Amino acid sequence: MRTRNGSSDPAGSPPAAGPAPARRPGGAAPGSGRVEPSGDGRHQRGAARRDPPVDHGTDPVVVRALAGVLVAVAAAGLALVECFLVPLRIGSVPFPITILLAMAGNILLARLAVRQTGSIAAGAVPVALWLIVVIVLSLPRAEGDLIVPGSVTGLVFLFGGTVAGAFGVASEITRRARSVAATPR
User: Fold this and answer.
1) CA dihedral 95, 99, 100, 104 (to 10 degrees)
2) Among 86, 141, 163, 170, which is most buried by a count of CB atoms within 10 Å?
3) What is the DSSP string of the chain?
4) Please, what's the b/e burial string for 34-46 (b: 16 or more CB within 10 A of its CB; e: otherwise)?
5) Spatial separation of the C-alpha atoms in residues 103 and 163, rounded to whole Å
6) At what angle do helices 152-182 and 120-138 cross, to 10 degrees?
């Protein structure tokens, strides 16, 4: 049996409508409705594809140390800002917002340091830096300037921030101890 283009078809199947559709490199035939990756690794028709995570060669120890340094710098900056907020007043009434900032900030920074570095001792670093900055700024200068006054607000700020930092470290110690105790053996 002869087809329209003059070739013989031994199976006797009906003639093709035209030449076979060209396949894209690495992809599906046009009009097939399938979405396959093209030869360059991209999906056609905007289909989502997740790339495997790329290892940039960063050492986890370096990343943890850098995270600890960033938390420590944040603690020193927070202490500096809080110290200048101690004498804050609304009219003639003291506004002790700095006490709340110190307590919340020290708890969060201590917990963050422990979780980011994986070391309990690293949780004490932000609290120690905070305390050093506050003590230095509570000492009078040669000119007689005093940033953190010895008022009730200043003393509660110093005591509350220190206790809150210790609480943050202790809570991470107990959290870690609970997770170790709950681990099946």
Assistant:
1) 160
2) 86
3) -B-TTS-B-TT-PPPPSSSPPPPPTTSPPTTS----B-TTSPBGGG---PPPPP-----HHHHHHHHHHHHHHHHHHHHHHHHHHTT-EETTEE--HHHHHHHHHHHHHHHHHHHHH--HHHHHHHHHHHHHHHHHHHSPPTTS--SS-SSHHHHHHHHHHHHHHHHHHHHHHHHHHHHHHHS--
4) eeeeeeeeeeeee
5) 8
6) 180
| Rounded CA separation 180/126 (Å) | 25
Tokens of 158: 């110093």
Q: What are phi and psi of 75, to 5 degrees?
A: -65, -45
Query: Structure tokens of 65?
Result: 């140390």
At residue 180's C-alpha, the angle toward residues 117 and 103, to 5°, is: 50
At which residue do the structure tokens 């905007």 appear? 46
Q: Give pTM, 2 decimals.
A: 0.65
